[in-house]
């Protein structure tokens, strides 16, 4: 076996540090353990390393990049398995989209995940992902006991859109992806970008109302 990680893992970028290469190799091993029954090594590594590329140019803490890449690759592989009919738990899947995936869609994801627990699946994404989740949105959600501080802006990908049963768009306009056969909703909400917590609270409350209504339409029991 080659001692050169970029030779044994051809999708690895050559400008990565040894620590980053090792972290990605560990991530690839974990993903293969979880998805090896559905996909080959090449597919899993390709998804991991293309996910890494999505964050490499804008992450403020490079040491966290392999972890972010693994989390995103895991989400994408779950989506691909559903699209290809290799795995489907029957849970409704909702995708929340906005421009920067930093405010509205992250709050919607937070409410949906908190209220639905494991009875439904929610993802979020942006047409032009920002560098971090809006601090005012994080603070406003914390007032409701929901922690979105560990979330991160990310793009949408084709397999994620195709795996969603419902796609909720919030201001991304023509940049939002359109795929036949999906249910689409446009939520017209003020953009919290650049606003303080006081201004974000009404946006947060309206998002909660809409998420609760959507869960009721999907017949998903809401956590107390």
Automatic annotation (TrEMBL):
Keywords: Arsenical resistance. Residues 92-217 form the Phosphotyrosine protein phosphatase I domain. It holds the Pfam family Phosphatase-like_N. One of its GO terms (biological process) is response to arsenic-containing substance. InterPro entries: Phosphatase-like_N (IPR048716), Ptyr_pPase (IPR023485), Ptyr_pPase_sf (IPR036196). CDD domains: LMWP_ArsC (cd16345). NCBIfam families: MSMEG_6209_Nter. This is Phosphotyrosine protein phosphatase.
